[in-house]
Amino acid sequence: MSAPAETVLSLRGIRRSFGEVEVLHGIDLDIAAHEVVALIGPSGSGKSTLLRAVNLTEPIDDGVVLLRGEDISDPRVNVDRVRARIGLVFQHYNLFPHLSVLDNVTLASRVVHGLRRAEAERRGLELLDSIGLADFATSFPDRLSGGQQQRVAIMRAIATNPELLLLDEVTSALDPELVGEVLALIRSLAEAGTTILMATHEMTFAREVADRVVLLDAGRVVESGPAAQFFANPREERTRAFLSRVAR
After folding, report:
1. ABC transporter domain spans which residues (predicted)?
2. What's the pLDDT tens digit per position in 31-55?
């Protein structure tokens, strides 16, 4: 029997409030190496807040975030060093408009990780070639479609070989005809063994690609389970009600 996969991310009792409103109510979650976990749930359920908490861009009020056993929620931690270990892709690309596509992809490798420009650009061109965008290396982001920009943003996030990739509704700002090319890229990353925690409203994609699906509702984990079981035979009534709404 094979040894259990190493735990990359552990969340214990994560709480976050904005004023009187508690957005995260004691979230517990573990993600193993090479596992793909999909966070689903209605708008305002806390998905994006949870991802930002993992990346230390959102402070937490209580709980512990462990990255490979290290308490990265400790206020004494070097935040930049931690973020260098995690890739994060937002809904709205966030490419630097004044930098070329290649410079966008290689910036973190050069500035944060100290990779020589020649090596960073070699790696960057390989990544752009893998998504069919090497010809746009010297172009600025406004020359690309939304789907192309989002794929570049994902390549930028993985250029530094992060231990964990966070995807925050990366298709929600795209026109429907562009969604497929971004999902195809995420599928290929999952098949290559990338450890991914993604918030998504693409239920079919979550069912087909995720190893595990977690339903958040009002800042609480309602149900978590293997994707096939989660969609075919959900245990909780709230899960069934949510799935019936999004399946319409």
Report:
1. 9-243
2. 999 999 999 999 899 999 999 999 9
Q: How many CB atoms lie within 10 A of CB 228?
A: 13
Strand, coil or helix: 123: helix
Parent domain of 206: 7-94+163-246
Summarize pLDDT for 196-232 with one digit per residue, the tens.
Answer: 999 999 998 999 999 999 999 999 999 999 999 999 9
Over residues 105-110, mean pLDDT: 92
Report the candidate in 217, 196, 221, 214 with the shortest Cα–Cα distance to residue 87: 196
The average pLDDT across 174-178 equals 82
- The CATH number covering residue 234 comes to 3.40.50.300
Q: Does 139 reside within a domain? A: no
Q: Tell me the chain's radius of gyration from C-alpha atoms.
A: 18
What confidence score (pLDDT) does residue 2 get? 52
Assigned domain for 129 exists:
no
* CA 231 – CA 159 distance, rounded (Å): 33
Per the structure, the count of domains in the chain is 1
Classify residue 54: in a domain, yes or no: yes
Adjacency order of strands within the sheet including 196-199:
86-89, 164-168, 196-199, 36-40, 212-217, 220-226
pLDDT of residue 135: 95
Quick check: 65 and 73 in contact, CB under 8 A? yes
Name, in order, each residue with C-beta under 8 angstroms of 183's C-beta and a sequence gap of 6 or more.
171, 202, 205, 209
> Three-state secondary structure along 167-204?
EECCCCCCCHHHHHHHHHHHHHHHHCCCCEEEECCCHH
